[in-house]
Amino acid sequence: MAISDTGIRIEPGSFRDPTNRVFHRDGEVLRGLDDLAARDWRSLAATDFFRSLLAEGKVCGTEELVPTPVDVPWTAVLRHERIPFVSHPYEWSFGMLRDAALLHLNILRAALAAGFTTKDGSAYNLQWRGASPVFIDVGSFAPARDGEPWAGYRQFCQTLLYPLLLQAHLGVDFQPWLRARVDGIEPDQMRRLFGGTRRLLPGVPTHVHLHGAMQARHARSTTRDVRAQLRAAGYSRELASATVRGIEKLVRRLDRRPGASHWSDYQRTCGYSVPDRQAKERFVEAATATLGGSGLVLDLGANDGRYARIAARHADYVVAVEQDPAVADELYRALRADGERRVLPLVMDLADPSPGGGWRGVERAGFADRTQADVVLALALVHHLAIGRNVPLGEVVDQIVGLGVPGGRLVVEFVHPEDPMARRLLANKPEGLFPDYRRDTFERLLATRCRIERRSELPSGTRTLYQAVVGG
């Protein structure tokens, strides 16, 4: 969406707060503010707490453009740092969602102490620099007033706290729930899941059942009525801060360490020999070395992140996609422990990648629309999609190629039908179902979409690596 001929493209996900809009122009991420939002921003920018958040990297880099550009319809315009890759909460692991929630609460506590609050509590207000969360919704800050509850509490519960409770207490992966509803999990849904003795689990009595009851009680009350009742009851910023501290304590206690899974043990069970692994590492190193410290690398089927880390030595940023939430969470925790800011782990089934969602299907962009990688790594992936998920081989190649920029590189591994892993997958399928799953067919399909630069057969003799140029 553009405004006249100014070159402005409005961000599709920025429309729910009418006082400010995020837009793009000339490669920059900008935010337009109306009169009220401009006043709030200038008050915020003058505070020590906000300067500290910026200095610590907890809030995305932001500055006001002075003078305000004359060709835009806003009172003030802010320029934000560009986040390397935009992701959605249903693509995060448990540890990522919890750390995002903790950052949100930490920022809110600091804001309340300085006389500010946040108007929103959505998980979508946060993004990532590698394994470090960052708050991006600067337009959410507003002056706090006594007697007013935290306006973002409901959003926080539905998009952050409830998904964490669901997985921590019940062992249910939250990602499908958040993907199904952009506004998150409703209190009514949670109450049905947490009946009986589950009602007493940490966080459930207050934030699920009491929250739902209060919501029902005030269903016909106006916001003004609720504020007046809270004011009369002596509700203050101090009480609000104490409430936030309580939620923060709860979130810190929630955990769900990943259990064992087939994929978490894949490096030991996949049948790779040491020479095979070393050959793959050398191949990936050579393919990414030409990036020279710039560019985006996409690692599809990242597993423990071995090859994503190699790519990160040469790229500006690496997005490591892994289907198994437990494996992705282990990778995230390892990257976080290392302070890694160039590798972003995401949870995603590549046979069912994230589609566009939200309002008109464009509020949250689909994975393919967000991804134009300079190098795409697809190692030990093709056979899982083609045989394991019954995706035609040509379609698999199309998907991998489509995620790269024209002129970018692909590093693809083809597992031959006689490989032990391929035989294991084929054993569970009707005989003769995949007559086209052959090396020569794959090579022909790849060559019609790319220019193959080099190929290397691994020492085992049952796997081949290809380096190709997209559209070459």
TrEMBL record:
Biological processes annotated in GO: methylation
GO MF annotation terms: methyltransferase activity
Highest taxon of source: Bacteria
Keyword line: Methyltransferase, Transferase
Keyword Ribosomal protein: no
Protein name as it appears in the record: Methyltransferase
Record organism: Micromonospora globispora
